[in-house]
Amino acid sequence: MPLFTILIVLVVAGVLLWLVNTYIPMDVKIRRILNVVVVIILVIWLLKVFGLFSYLMAITV
To answer: What is the pTM for the complete model shown?
Structure first.
């Protein structure tokens, strides 16, 4: 996967998260949980893209 595509996905995810945090009224706890979930999903996706996810899973087994 090209580095440019990865960068575009991260920027789009960041902008969408910013839009949700800015324009949708919600409790601070829910907003924090949403932010953590999105960051965890992006980290797992990045690990899979760079091929480190399967390597880390092999170490833990």
So the answer is: 0.83
